[in-house]
Fold RNA polymerase subunit sigma.
Amino acid sequence: MESQEVLELIREAKKGNNETTEKLIERYLNTVRKINNKWGGTDDGFQEGILGIYQAIKTFDESYNTKFMTHLYFHIEAKIRKFIDKERYRVPQYVIESIKKGEQERLYFSGIENLEIEDENTGNENLENKVLVEKLLNCCTRQEKEVLNLLFFEGYSGQAVAEKLRMSRQWVHSIKHRAFEKIRNNIKSPRDF
């Protein structure tokens, strides 16, 4: 059971009292630091941990007779881990723009294996973009290329790709993120560029 003082602060914070929300945040900053240090100790992770405090305040239900710290710990750690997972699969913006340009210019895969690109309006700049996309995708497996093709070039939803390839939507998601990770690593240590 939580102390009456903390329960009063939580009730006031839920009503929208910013002062009590700030008091609660200050009270649990060390908890955020400890959890953040466990997951790498980044400034962004620390900020996500503070957002976890907000979320814990909003969702705390005193009728469960649990300590606020137990509830809080879960939300802080979940926010930090979610942020770390998202960062792990981040693809640089210029890569996304190149892929989008390829889509707008009707970039087709005639052979997934060889990645031959067909387009009647091939100018030098367009050709460079297509070669960049082709080189970025060369590090992917046949299956990863096929999933990326269906998702980003042919406009299928994740569910539609899963049905077409007869696999679960989670597996499609996993393949997509594995491909993004390879592309990101290929950009960091380019072999063919």
Notes: Confidence is low (pLDDT under 50) at residues 104-123. The chain has two domains: 4-89, 128-188. The two ends are 60 Å apart (CA to CA). The chain has ten helices and two strands.
